[in-house]
Design goal:
The chain has about 280 residues and is an all-alpha fold. The chain has 2 domains: about 80 residues, no CATH class; about 170 residues, Hypothetical protein af1432 (Orthogonal Bundle), CATH 1.10.3210. It has a 3-stranded mixed beta sheet with strand order 1-2-3, with no helix packed on it. A hairpin with a 2-residue loop joins β1 and β2. The longest helix has 15 residues. The protein starts with 8 loop residues before the first helix and ends in a 6-residue tail after the last helix.
Length: about 280
Amino acid sequence: MSSVRHGDTNTVQSNAIAFSEANAPAALLSSHSGSPSERADALEEYLIRRLDDVWIAKSILYASGDLDPSTVPSKVPPPGTRALMGDDPRLKKMSDAPTLAEFFQKRLMSKAHLLQSAKLALDSGHDEKIVLACLLHDIAVCGLIRADHGYWGEQLIAPYVSEEISWAVRTHQALRFFPDESVGYEYPESYVRWFGEDYELEPYIHEEYRQARKHRWYMTARLITLNDLYAFDPSVEVSIDIFTDIIGRHFKQPREGLGFDGSPSAHMWRTMIQPTRFL
């Protein structure tokens, strides 16, 4: 069994302390002369993202792995501060009725990958539903969470697209690990580098693939993987604007705005709007 390598604990702690000290006031530093661990805790208490009198905390999910969540006590705003219960002032402010394009502009990382994937599908002459599926296939990775991103992505977009598109977004997560000679899709060489030659898929991924092969929408999901594979080129710039009409025809933009329409996934869009909201 291969082992998971983490950064040296002392190095990680030293880097964290150095970062904290560079951002903390001199008065705070001079008042703590304890051990490195105690000093780090004190600095963290200040830097647990205090902006003026606002205390900004990060959800434990996004710290898990860097630390053991079962050992972390619940924290509340330090005296004299108030917890952030709205927009994070460090992020671009969203409009009152956010659109899909606005999320691309203000909340998604690595959006070039999604845009290039959709452009490749468009230039290849695929149906508009395929183009939109490619545009949305990694939206969870880019805006919410990496693990099981296909499933999260499906739930995020399901109220606004056809069932075929949301199914394809979920299912591409499994299909990308399985070649299909009929469309010229091979197991990505990058996966060998990233995951190792001895990487073994989880049983649920095998089962998802088995079910997908029998499904009437198999090729919709497969075409996502085909356009996904060749959509990494840092020299190519694609604007979300070229997909405006396709989005308009195939994405049901709510009048109230994404996150505020009461849909089953509205809370997920709100989380992307205000990712550091305390509760």
